[in-house]
Amino acid sequence: MVSQSVYLALVALSTVVSVAVAVWLWDDDTNLQSRLFVAIVALYAVSGPLVIAELLAPSRSLMISSFRFQAALTGFLPLLWFLLILEYVGHLRRVPRSVVYGAVGWHVLVALLEATNPLHELIWTEFTLVSEPFTYTEAVPTGLSFALLLPGSLLYYGGLGLLGAHLLFGPGVRRKQTAALLVGYLPTFAIFSLWFAGTIPGPLSGALVIGSPWLLGVVAWAVFRHQLFDLAPLARESVLEVLDDAVVVVDSDRRLLDYNRAAAETFPAVSDYEGEPVERAVPELYPTSEADGTAADGPTEVSSDSGPDGGGVVAPVESNESGEPTEVLPSDGAPDSPFVSAFTRFEEGEVREYDVTVSDLQVRGSVAGYTLVLRDVTERRQHVRDLEQQTTQLERFASTLSHDLRNPLNVAHGRVAIAREERDDEHLSKASDALDRMDQIVQDTLTLAREGETVDDLSRVSLATVARDSWGTTDTGAATLDVDVDDATRVYADATRLQSVFENLYRNAIDHGDESVTVTVGRTDDGFFVADDGPGVPADEREQVFEYAYTTADDGTGLGLAIVDAVARAHGWEVSMTESDGDSGARVVFSGVKLIEGRTEPEHELTNT
């Protein structure tokens, strides 16, 4: 028989081990699984001193008090174990919060009744002191106590069943972790059973504490060797659950193993087909040319069109909540993947489009499964189609401006010129001016349509050179240009479009200033600026000057600064209007521009024309 001193030594040693493991595993950044396990270990660590206090207590009342508190604490073990296993196998997220809170509340109530039993005697009717093989406390339960403690006992059996099922049918990549948890769980389950059968001596809490090192050793091995509470569950919590896109995980046989909340909300059938081929839950994922008519539940229809292999394409027909058929549109197959790269489905009266990204899950160099990210791209593709349509319309508009509208303008110009040779008067002069203005509007509008296109071909150009060359191609009169930029400073840009920026800014400064205006081109920390010493722009109008058709001049088209804004955005720059340094004049600032110092390679330079 085990002596009291040996028993106490074993309890003390196990308590030390429990404390060490709890300290080792605890971290503020740990996930829910590891925190639940640390809570279990902490219960063992706290129960140890209470067992020692019971065995060494100098009076019967102190022994009984220690016993009551032991029972209150160990009563939480079944609940904590069950929650840990639920979280590990991925089912805890499906349990309503109210159920979890109810289970916790129930165990708190039972613990309070155990701790306060002398006041009501609802749990135990009396206490006896057992003298063999050493003195410890036993309690005689009431009829009510069995009903109160039964849920905890059932949780032990439930947890055992969940672990066993996960070991047999769960993902193979986590089989060793599952086996470690099961091996670590069995001693606690066995100790409960053997103690109630009278095989293990001493108090129940003491037996659990002494048996804990076996549990802790196995699970600690799983933590150290297979990262039980680290990569696999942490990746799931920190990556999968926070994604807005639907994510499903399948094994090499395409069986559905896991999915995130977004997948369950978007494709509700995934919750009904765990462990089965994923195409039963989302039939569109499997290339229709390879389907055999059994991949999806329910009836299938074979179209008369031939697939890539010459056979009929099987199109699964789903049902919506009202029982009406839901059409599954043809999917695009991915040549290097067992799944499609994109698919379209008809949901709730509208077509939804999805892109599928497939990533291999490899174990020891072989593919053990796949992660599928299903991204709803309906709005994005519609936006792309809208942009393509707008681009086509813009190109047609530009073509109309450059050909269909310019031809009659040229004819009108010629007719007016001939008429003015025969008889020049005020009316013909005004008509000629109006035609000139129309021609300028056409030219500026055509420039705006073309300059807004994204710049794909960038070259390294000298900012100072383009600024000076643009001055030479603009009617500047008596105005002055001051380029305060080093000739070696380069920018990545389309030289022709950058020239149009400077030309429009120069014309704008001259049109709104007098003949002696001075225009300055200078550098900033992240770009450059073009400033003048003219009258400037009122503060409340500076955000409007880049808008289409905004002008303060009677003969202006209002497109000059809109062209500047379009070219800047096409380069990925930002443009803004501020006040010049001298409290007068306008200053147009370009930011987000990558400036390169020095000449490291030949660059494109403009020449005066």
Q: What's the rounded overall pLDDT mean?
A: 75
- The count of helical stretches stands at 17
Cα-to-Cα separation, first versus last residue: 110 Å
CATH architectural grouping of the largest domain: Up-down Bundle
The tally of strands reads 20
Residue share in helix? 40-55%
Which strands sit side by side, in order, in the main sheet? 4-3-12-11-10-9
Biggest sheet features: 6 strands, antiparallel
Keywords summarizing the entry:
disordered C terminus; elongated; five-stranded mixed sheet; Rhopdopsin 7-helix transmembrane proteins; 19% strand; Helix Hairpins; 49% helix; six-stranded antiparallel sheet; 17 helices; alpha+beta; Beta-Lactamase; 609 residues
Topology summary:
Blueprint: H1 4-25, H2 32-56, H3 60-74, H4 77-89, H5 97-115, H6 117-120, E1 124-130, E2 136-141, H7 143-169, H8 175-196, H9 204-226, H10 231-240, E3 246-251, E4 256-259, H11 261-266, H12 278-281, E5 300-306, E6 312-316, E7 318-319, E8 325-326, E9 332-333, E10 340-347, E11 350-363, E12 366-376, H13 378-422, H14 426-451, E13 459-462, H15 463-472, E14 480-484, E15 490-493, H16 495-512, E16 518-524, E17 527-532, H17 560-571, E18 574-579, E19 586-591, E20 595-596
Parallel strand pairs: 14-16
Antiparallel strand pairs: 1-2, 3-4, 3-12, 5-6, 7-8, 9-10, 10-11, 11-12, 13-15, 15-20, 16-17, 17-19, 18-19
Helix pairs in contact: 1-2, 1-9, 2-3, 2-4, 2-9, 3-5, 4-7, 7-8, 8-9, 13-14, 14-17, 15-16, 16-17
